[in-house]
Automatic annotation (TrEMBL):
Residues 40-236 form the Bacterial bifunctional deaminase-reductase C-terminal domain. SUPFAM superfamilies: Dihydrofolate reductase-like. GO terms for biological process: riboflavin biosynthetic process. Pathway: Cofactor biosynthesis; riboflavin biosynthesis. It comes from Oryzihumus leptocrescens. Residues 1-20 are annotated as: Disordered. GO terms for molecular function: 5-amino-6-(5-phosphoribosylamino)uracil reductase activity. This is Riboflavin biosynthesis pyrimidine reductase.
Length: 263
């Protein structure tokens, strides 16, 4: 990987030519210090093609991933306390409880995190994807974020599968993201990584809770009718680039909300 644009505190590389060691890559993507002091920082991670598609022909983001994207995907999970995802995306992409990849376990340990990341699934109907009902050894906990409109039998089924403390009901007709994020932060889960889908991404931006976007641009054109990384009514949010990295045609970047502090 080759560093194109550093942020002000960018680490040095190994070769002097902008090529990044794994340690330097991890430092470039570390959360701001405020996130270690109880202040939540919400980061989203998405991949898109050159023509703006967030999925390939099979409707999954996995089909447009590249090697560099998969590497940073694993790193971002290792740096996070909790991964936030919509239930639909979790179902389509085949999500399971998260275990930190061996490649990045040292990075996670150095930042004082010994347990695997928690997976928080947002669902208005409290429908927990089947693959998340069991927790394999070495994987993190699963939390369900839902709302009062969810059927009571679905909420009770989720409590039976995950434990009562891991089902959080916030909001009336939809999940109240402000209240949900505050609840996650109260549990010490302040480094929040959102992996989609597009509707959840839209709602985070609309609610003013997206601090940062990590966007991978795959060197591919797919045409067709595909979703974008956001879905919903028009909104405007200005982001500024902090990091740009290139690897075999893939461009990866960190874009931070213009008014967000990163210290």
């Amino acid at each position: 990987m080759r560093l194109l644009l550093p942020h002000p505190d960018a680490p040095s590389d190994d070769e002097g030519d902008g090529r990044l060691s794994p340690e330097a890559l991890a430092e470039l993507y570390e959360y701001p210090r405020s996130a270690t002091r109880g202040v939540p920082w919400v980061r989203a991670n998405f991949v898109t093609t050159l023509d703006g598609a967030a999925t390939g022909s099979d409707g999954r983001s996995g089909s447009i991933n590249t090697g560099a994207d998969r590497e940073v995907f694993g790193l971002l999970r290792a740096l996070a306390d909790v991964v936030l995802v919509g239930a639909g995306t979790a179902r389509i992409e085949g999500y399971r409880p998260i275990a930190a990849r061996a490649q990045w376990q040292d990075v996670r340990a150095r930042s004082g995190r010994t347990d695997p990341p928690v997976l928080a699934v947002a669902s208005r109907s409290a429908q927990l994807p089947p693959l998340l009902r069991e927790r394999p050894e070495g994987a993190g906990e699963v939390i369900l974020l839902t709302c009062e409109r969810a059927p009571e039998d679905a909420v009770e089924a989720a409590r039976a599968a995950l434990g009562a403390d891991n089902v959080i009901v916030r909001g009336g007709d939809g999940v109240d993201l402000d209240a949900a994020i505050k609840e996650l932060a109260a549990r010490g889960l302040t480094r929040i990584l959102c992996e989609g889908g597009p509707q959840l991404m839209h709602d985070l931006v609309s609610a003013g809770h997206l601090d940062e976007l990590c966007l991978t641009i795959a060197p591919t054109i797919v045409a067709g009718d595909h979703t974008r990384i956001t879905a919903g009514p028009s909104i405007v949010e200005h982001l500024v680039p902090r990091v740009l990295i290139e690897s075999e045609g893939t461009v990866l970047g960190r874009w931070v909300r213009a008014d967000a502090a990163t210290g």
